[in-house]
Structure formats: structure tokens, C-alpha cells
Protein 1
Amino acid sequence: MTQHNIQQIQHIIGGERITGKTFANYNPHDKSFLCDVAEGSSDDVDRAAQAAKKAFVTWRNFPIKKRRDLLYSIAQKIEENAAEIATLESMDTGQPIRFMKKAAMRGADNFRFFADKVVTARSGLTLPADEHLNYTLRQPIGPVGVITPWNTPFMLSTWKIAPALAAGCTVVHKPAELSPITAERLTLLMHEAGLPPGVVNVVNGFGETTGKSLCEHPDIKAIAFVGESRTGSCIMRQGADTLKRVHFELGGKNPVVVFADADIERAVDAVIFMKYSLNGERCTSSSRVIVQRSIYEEFNERLAKRVAKLKVGNPLHPDTEVGPLISKEHLQKVSSYVEIGEGEGAILRAKSTNVANELTGNYFTPVLFSNVESKMRIAQEEIFGPFLVSIAFESDEEALHIANDIRYGLAAYLWTKDITRAHTFAENVAAGMVWVNSQNVRHLPTPFGGMKDSGIGRDGGDYSFDFYMETKNIAIAMGEHRIPKLGAE
Ligand code: NAD
């Protein structure tokens, strides 16, 4: 990877690049060696936590306007380097470059959005009582740990780090071991923009060792985590002794319910986009399409035609729509569900026939399964690849039952022109976010997060500050109210 001169991804602790023991990182497209990555020990985590603790003393009181301007400068740096970030992200993750360009710009948007919120981050409520004026202040919780997954690491890192910095917290970031490149790039850009050393530190390594040390560290006050539901359980256990505050964005198996009265053409576009973009490695993907029986055959036929034409190939090629999966192990996992689905009696309805020649990497050919029952494993388990399952329903009640018949509750999508049905369904579906007649279109002030096994807490707007800040109540007596006298006689 001489073009970008990445030979080794290092830790960045207290503003210094540090390495030690390393492990190898490979390109999902052709399995070639990409770079060595530093493997953080518990000592490295401790040094990073100490650096974050020291920097917190000044960062929490960093002048508001200077902090806001610094976050704007980081956004500017990201924009200036967006093309390079997109290329690095695409090589490291296998995500098609057409989506990664937008993901890099979304990273800049995240910093700009939270820069605007710096000015009001500390503001609370005024709660006057009869004899006291109560008011609340918000104060940063302290150094926090941020642990991110491999699917869209740059965007997700900015989504966590920007609000933490706006709140006045300092950060120790543990990126995913399978795609660590852009986390280093982001931290270097933040320092180029003028971020003081120690405010953001990166320690690379594996979850079970480096990540665990971060969760257990007594000076780290909270863990913001994005990843699998079972890892969330581990993190909760690891953080129990130090009473860590946790924020979890976990797995999903999101329903998209299509009623017969829907705009079918737009619904097909949205279903295909939300399942097959980002290689299907997307927490909010519409993994289960639940279609009214009267249009079931026609809808599947339309989906099948589109799936057959999905362009699979080198993620760096601008025309590519689906790239390779992140790793050999993940490819094996996703592939195993084809056999599982057929064994359960579902029908392999379509497969892409638009696959580039001579692909040697972790490529999985996108599929659509129809005649799926809700109880089947392919309908219940998070596959996290370009793998769509289609289920039929008769009535509104049955559609809702199938949508909620799952351990997850991140997002739900609904297609209907009936406004009463839309409101009723949206209220009753167990999901943190519902889109009606739309794909996932993010608006940064709105709450992002899941119910059930899909998460704890919400991100976005002021919701992020509920996690990164403590709310303190201050009560001021407004006169000489009665104070009980004890031991006075
Ligand atoms: P993962 O849980 O395997 O790993 C995520 C991160 O956790 C990595 O950095 C990993 O090293 C670390 N980790 C693993 N074990 C740990 C431990 N015991 N202690 C501390 N850290 C540990 O997830 P993944 O496979 O990288 O990512 C895919 C998952 O992420 C999917 O389930 C997907 O749905 C989820 N995801 C959720 C959202 C959301 O917003 N809800 C967004 C993106 C991805």
C-alpha cells in the first residue's frame, strides 16, 4: 500500500505515536497484506487512560468558543482529506468507494453539528419551587472509552467522538482490529487541527484483551460501544466492578413491512438499497422484508430482478455496488446461512449474476430468499451480509406480530399510503427508530438507538449529552424558609 504509505498503524497516546507488538491487517478484496497494527497491552491502555485523565483537567474548561472553532477545524480537515479517507476505508473494510465518499463527508457533518452544540452543552433547566430556585447544569463525566466495530469505522468513530469532545470529555478509542486504519488518520487530523495532546488517544488491539482492559480501567468513566449484542453483555460484565456507565448500539434484524397499498416501485428501491448497500454489513439494514400476500409474488419478482443485477466487484471501482465481506471468517458465517435457509425449506429466489471475473477475496454473491417463515434461523439471526429474507403476511395484526417476533429492536420501515395504519403500526412496532415510506435518512438532532437486544441509550442531538455528561441540580433558597430546629431546647 505504498500509495498511502501505511506500513504500520500505531497507537496515539498523549499525542505521540507508539508501537510495540504488532499483528497483520489484510485487504478483504484480494487478501493481500495491508499493514501491521500495534497490539495494545494493558499498560498501553493505562498510559492512554492517564493521558486522557490529565488532559481532562484542561479540556473540560477549554473556552467554549475555542472548543467550537476547533471542532469546526476538524470538520474542515476531514473534508479536505475526504477522498483519501474514503480510499483507505474502502481498502480496509471492502466497502464500495461510492458509499465511503459520503461516509467521510458524514464524519465532517458530525463534527460540525456538535461544534454548533458546544455553546449550549452545559445548559440545563430552571425548575423554580415555592422557596427555592432549582436549576440544573450539565458537566462532562470525565475520560470515556469509545469502542467501535469494523463495518463503517470512520463515520461511527466521528459519531461517538464529536459529541464526547463537545461535552468536554476526553477519549480513549479502541478501534476494531479488522479495520483500524482510518481511526489513526482521524486522530492525526484532529491533532493537525490543533487538538491538545491527550484529549483523544487511540489504542489498537483485540477486544478480549485491549478492549477488556479499557472497560475495566478505573479512570475511564463510561464506555460508548458499537458492535454485537453479545459483546455488549461482555462489556457490561467487565465494567461492573468500576460501575461504568454504558451506551450500547448493538445488532439488528430490521423489518420492512410493505402493504399492498404502497408505492411499490419506491418500496423496491428502498428495500434493495437498505439491504445491499454497505455490503449488507449495516446495523439499520432492512434484513426482513414482510410483504402483504396479495402482492407477495409480484414484489419478490421485482426484488429478484434487481438482486440479479447487483454489481459485485472491487470496492475501489466506482461502479461497484457490493464489495467483499470484511474477513474470511465472516464470509464463512454469511455463506453458511445459504445452506441453513435451504435446509429450513426457504427458496433461494435470486442471486446476483453480475459478479466481476477472477475475484479472490472474501466475496459473497448477494442473495434473496423467499417463502421464509418467521421462526426460521435465517429470519431470526443477524447475518450481517447481502442476504435478504422475504416473508408473507395477510393482516395488519400478522404484519405487526412478525415485525416484533425477534430479539432485536433497532429500526423498522413501513410502506403504506394509509395514514391511520402508518401511525398505529409505528406506535406499536418495537423499534427505536421507524421510517414510514422512506429508507434510513438520518437527521442529526433526532435520537438514534435501539430497543430490546439492539441497545441501551440514544445518540444524536442533546441525547448524546445525556450520556457524556452528568446533570447536577443546584437549589438556592430565595428567602428565609423554615428550617426545623433540632437540639435547640
Ligand atoms: P464486535 O462486537 O465483534 O466488535 C466491536 C468492537 O468491540 C471491536 O472493536 C472489538 O475489538 C471490541 N470487542 C470485542 N470483544 C470485546 C470485549 N470483550 N471487551 C471490549 N471490547 C470488545 O462487532 P463487529 O463484528 O466489529 O461489528 C458488527 C456488529 O456491530 C453487528 O452486530 C452490527 O449490528 C453492530 N453494529 C451496530 C450499530 C448500531 O448503531 N446499532 C452500528 C454498526 C454496527
Protein 2
Amino acid sequence: MSVALEMRGISKSFPGIRALSDVDLIARAGEVHAVVGENGAGKSTLMKILAGVYQPDGGTISLDGAETRISGPIDARSRGIGMVYQELNLVPDLTVAENIMLGATPSRFGFVRRRALSEAAAVVLDAFDARIDPAAILGSLTVSQQQIVEIAKAYAQRPSIIVLDEPTSSLSEHEAQALFHIVRRMRADGIAIIYISHRLREVLELADQVTVLRDGRQIETRSADGLTAGEMIRLMVGRDLTDIFPKREVPIGDVVLEVDALTRPGAFADVSVSVRAGEIVGLAGLVGAGRTEVARAVFGLDRAQSGTVRVDGRDVFARTPAQGLAAGIAYVPEDRKRDGIVHSASIKDNVSLPVLSSLSTGGWISRTRERAMVRDQVETLGVSPPVIERAVDTLSGGNQQKVVIAKWLAAKPRVLILDEPTRGVDVGAKADIHEIIGALAAAGTAILLISSELPEVLAVSDRIYVLHEGHVSAELDRTEATEATVMHAATGEAVRS
Ligand code: ADP
Ligand code: MG
């Protein structure tokens, strides 16, 4: 496939920091080239050099084989380089069509009437199979729809190279799938795609080539074929996984959570799992295998048709989350953007929400106790900045996730179910969250960990259950669980022995 972009020996320093040293990046037409690395590795700087936002201190850039200088963002755009940043650059009060055509050259669209504009936008959206009305006001769409509009806007310029800088960090797994469809579509169109993401599974799913950056240096560029998530993390951080997610040795106690033959037709059937005090049990499986559904039923968000749930030997009939909580079960949901958190509210209000009843005496909430309790949690979890009056949506993703966990920890659960607790956060924040999980286990909490990030599950779990199409397809001990054995069971190639 033809080389669309060749960046060679790129270096860039900011005052006091060398952001990039001698980095090469080659992108081919019709290929997805993923760029991965920890926060601060230099990914965005490299892309901003390509976009003309920064000039490199050294190195060359060639487009279609011809060495060029990209003088600025407009120049980059006119040379066929499309950029989609993580932050949306759209106008909420304009329609979808107006937003998509915003970046298009005025000579082509300046004089066209509204209808023609709408039609042009519809063509772009249709290409993505996106069911988004071009006439809709942008601000009325969901974040993921807006993200699709953002990509459509870049695509409408007919770029030969498109850069997606963490396009899915605010999307749920399901929404991300819609975006993958679009990326594949653009790849089929012969666009060279540069894809930046923290979600390593999605990198493995989409990418043809992978470049790993660490501390501004290019550590590796190789085909995504045969690359594992664990290997990628090792390259990203330069240490072994067991160093990044060290497993804390904790005495394992009695069975705390016992789920027996739990069945919810259409979602899962005959699911039996147990978790002991101090034990971290992974629940692995592909998207749609039923992991979240099982967790929801155990907690009382959904109703199982048959089967039993016991906590410390007592039957639990949780039909509402309040009953689940009362029985000692806490559940940190998958989509923190949706049900985990009240975004505009402060850290304090989010954390104390589920425990307000225990803080109140005769209907009065002790504000002093509330503040003390929240401060305590925020400190234990290392939420940064530790200012409990701050609105949660001003925090980074990793810190928001810590607030979500703090919220449920305040309830001092016997069983903690964590659903994708580290999704979309960088490796450093992941390690922090794992440390918290380890500390909780050490305190005797029974932990059920749902995660699509296999290397993490493998590193921290004492045991792993694998779900496949709503059934437990394997139960693996720490010693027998590997990426291969888990994936085998997750894809239904292994039956439970
Ligand atoms: P990534 O996108 O991989 O997280 P960046 O490219 O944003 O990393 O950052 C690489 C390094 O350069 C970081 O240390 C960051 O703090 C620094 N950096 C990035 N942009 C600037 C800037 N405009 N001024 C000063 N330092 C910067
Ligand atoms: Mg970045």
C-alpha cells in the first residue's frame, strides 16, 4: 500500500522538556496505524506537528513521497490532513449539517443554499451508516453522536490522512463499536488513519500497525498481528506487568458472595460464581457475553428469573439497588458517564449520595460527619486535586473514576463489584485504581472485577470466571489463566471441564 505520510527523525522540545526525540512515523493509505503510550509520551505533540500546530525542531515530513513543510493548520488541512481531537470542536447552536460543512472551503459551500448543505452532510453521514439527522441542532445530540459528527466534519474535506486522537475516551463500549465501523469504512476508502487510544483491546481490534512511544522516544513499530495487550503495556511503560499491577498477597477468608444458577432469560443462564473475603475474582468475556447483566442482577438493578444470591450465607433478594446495598453489595457501573456519577455535582455530594441515610440521625444529616467521611475517602484514594467542593467534571478521567469508587466505598460493602473500573484511563491511573482494589481486598472485601483489559485481570485476579454467551465457559485459577486460555474460553472454543 502506498505511503501517504512519512515523518522522519522528528524532535520537539518545550521549555524544560524534550517532548519528542528522533521519532519516525509512516502511515500508508488504507491502513490504521495506532500510536500508543502513557500520558505525556508525546503522542499529541507528534500529531500537532503533523497538523501544523507546532513546527518540529528537527526531522522531515513527506506527503505522498514529497518532502514538505506544514506551515500551519490551514495548510495542513489543504494538504489533505484531517484532525479529530478528543475535545469536540463543534458549535452546539448550529445544525449537524452546518457543523459538518463548517470546515469545508467557502468557495465550494459559501453560496449553496441550506438544502444543498443538508444534502451534502447527509451524504457524509450516510457513508458512516450514522442515523443522525443533518437538520438536528448539534447540542441536542449525545456525546457519541457529536463525536461522529466531528469525524464526519473531518471526513467531509476528503482527507488522505486522518488523525483520531483518543476519539473513544468518553464513549461506552457500544458507542465505540459504532465508531470502529466508521474507522473501518474510512480505511476501506483508502484513507491513512492514525489512531491514538488508551484502550488497548480496541487498538488490537482495529490497527494494522502499532507504534509505541515512551518519554518522547519511539520504542517500537510493528504489525498489530500477534501483538498482545500485555506486550503493548510492557513496551509502553518499560516494565513488566507484575511490576505495574503488583498482586498483593492477602489471606483468603470464607465465601462471602455466592451466586448459584442465576438465570435471566435472554441475558445469562445458570451462572454460578463465588467470591471469598479478600479474594479478587475476575469476570472475563467478550462484549455482550453477559458480564454486566450478571452484575446488575446480583446488585438488584435487574431481576433474575431464577437462582440464588447469598452474602455471608444469607439469602439476598435484591430487587432494587437499595436492597443490594443493604445486603452489603456495592456495584460500580461500567458507564461512569451515565450512571456512575452526577457530573455537575461536587466530589462531596457524589461520594456521600449513597450513604446519606447512614449519616443522618432522625432525618438530620450531619454535615460535619459527611465532610469528614468524604475527606477521608478522597485522601485514601488519592483523588487529585483533593478539593471536595470541586465539580466532578473538572477532574481527569482517572480521578473521576476514583470518585465513583469512593462513592461506593463509603458504604463499606462486603462485596464490591467493579465493572470496567479502568476503562479509558491511562496506565498510571490504572495502577492507582488497582492499588485501591488491592487495599480493599486486604481489608477483607470480596471483589468481583469485570474488565475487558485482560492483562489487568490476569495480573490482579486470584481466580477468573469466563463468560461466553451468558454461560460460564471456564473457571481458571490464577496459575492456569493466561491471555490464551481466557480468550479461548471467551470465544467459546473451550467448554467448562
Ligand atoms: P501525550 O499526548 O502522549 O499524552 P503530549 O504530546 O501531550 O503527550 O505531551 C508530551 C510532553 O510534552 C509532556 O511532557 C507535556 O507536558 C509536554 N507538552 C506538550 N505540549 C506542551 C506545550 N504546549 N508546552 C509545554 N509542554 C508541553
Ligand atoms: Mg494526548
